[in-house]
UniProtKB/TrEMBL annotation:
GO terms for biological process: L-serine biosynthetic process; pyridoxine biosynthetic process. Homodimer. Pyridoxal 5'-phosphate binds at residues 76-77, 102, 152, 172, 195, 237-238. This is Phosphoserine aminotransferase. One of its GO terms (molecular function) is O-phospho-L-serine:2-oxoglutarate aminotransferase activity. It catalyses: O-phospho-L-serine + 2-oxoglutarate = 3-phosphooxypyruvate + L-glutamate; 4-(phosphooxy)-L-threonine + 2-oxoglutarate = (R)-3-hydroxy-2-oxo-4-phosphooxybutanoate + L-glutamate. Residues 5-346 form the Aminotransferase class V domain. The gene is serC. It comes from Pseudoxanthomonas indica. One of its GO terms (cellular component) is cytoplasm. Its EC number is 2.6.1.52.
């Protein structure tokens, strides 16, 4: 059996070494006579796995000590609802910058709890560019400013950290965390679902500056409270132990491969291969995103018509290139090039694109 190159946007490809390790550990782990999913989350064995995953993630992302790292069940969308509950008082103003689909989702999740001010909106421009920092209308009294670091569907990402003064910057890094070095200290909260760059779906990570845990927020159950999770090492209830273990293996793999600097290098190389195939196609392939904010992680592109698009999807699959069909909100093709996708995968896609154009252009 050969594993194909998998361009899925999420859940997404995982490192083969991680899958092999998980396979080997599945029946019996570390001499304990059971698999890691069959033991108590309160056992010393699991607590060691969880603590190692946190230590490795801190090392990978250079997370300073004054940030708590929470491992939570529920996806990034759940965290989007927890943000206003934890960081803002009822009805308080919060600023959101919208640069694509996930920025809109973040607003939808926050709206029941706070007064959402859209500080800038890329939608009138078709989400082809991130609104320039100079154009943002920030409120004086916002509890936080929210951005989406990488828009997974529309294919744009910030190539800089915006300065928002003393108001905490909250960023959804679901689809680009660990893709390059990141100055955590510039953010109040960084959050991400695991299923793009960190492991399998079912666990999310929130990196929260500790002073923000002191905010009173809004009336909420304990289980929705960041501070309670932090105080109990994310074991307020049964955490998703298998996912946590898998996240740990994935983070360790990234460290072993050379860390975020190495992935920044690979991701630049991979995305350059695909963008070159698009830009060098004389208009056969089209990507409409402003070059300065083109995503390295998710590359949407279009062919001249629907027939060719459908043929591209089916022929690429036959060629061992999986999940290239675009998101329905955008159409066309989308190639996701997460950390676990090797450079050879992007090369195979670029080669296929040139060959397909030659046969159909
Ligand atoms: C995938 C994704 C989400 C949603 O994650 P869920 O786990 O489905 O809630 C949110 N934001 C971004 C940027 C994403 O890529």
């Amino acid at each position: 059996m050969t594993r194909a190159y998998n361009f899925s946007a999420g859940p997404a490809t995982l490192p083969e070494a991680v899958l092999r390790q998980a396979q080997a550990d599945m029946l019996e782990w570390n001499g304990i006579g059971a698999s890691i999913v069959e033991i108590s989350h309160r056992s010393a064995d699991f607590i060691a796995v969880a603590a190692q995953a946190e230590a490795d993630l801190r090392k990978l992302l250079w997370i300073p000590d004054d940030y708590a790292v929470l491992f939570l069940s529920g996806g990034a969308t759940t965290l989007q609802a927890l943000l206003p509950l934890n960081l803002a008082t009822a009805g308080q103003t919060v600023d959101y910058v919208v640069s694509g689909h996930w920025g809109k989702t973040a607003i939808k999740q926050a709206r029941p709890y706070v007064k959402v001010q859209v500080a800038a909106d890329g939608e009138p421009g078709g989400f082809h560019d991130i609104p320039a920092r100079e154009s943002w209308q920030l409120s004086d009294d916002a509890a936080y400013v929210h951005i989406t670091a990488n828009e997974t569907i529309h294919g744009l990402e910030y190539r800089y950290t915006p300065d928002v003064g003393t108001v905490p910057l909250v960023a959804d890094f679901s689809s680009s965390i660990a893709s390059e070095p990141l100055d955590v200290s510039r953010y109040g909260v960084i959050y991400a679902g695991a299923q793009k760059n960190l492991g399998p779906v079912g666990i999310s990570v929130a990196i929260v500056r500790r002073d923000l845990l002191e905010r009173s927020g809004q009336p909420r159950a304990d289980i929705f409270d960041f501070r309670s999770h932090a105080a109990r090492d994310s074991m307020l209830n049964t955490p998703p132990t298998w996912n946590w273990y898998m996240l740990g293996l994935t983070v360790k793999w990234m460290l072993d491969e050379g860390g975020v600097e190495e992935f920044a290098r690979r991701n630049a190389a991979k995305s350059a291969l695909v963008y070159q195939a698009i830009d060098g196609s004389g208009g056969f392939y089209r990507n409409d995103i402003a070059h300065a904010v083109r995503s390295r992680m998710n590359i949407p592109f279009f062919l001249p018509d629907e027939d060719l698009t459908a043929r591209f999807v089916s022929e690429s699959k036959q060629a061992g290139l999986l999940a290239l069909k675009g998101h329905k909100a955008v159409g066309g093709i989308r190639a996701s090039l997460y950390n676990a996708l090797p450079v050879a995968g992007a090369q195979a896609l670029a080669d296929f694109m040139r060959d397909f154009q030659q046969r159909n252009g």
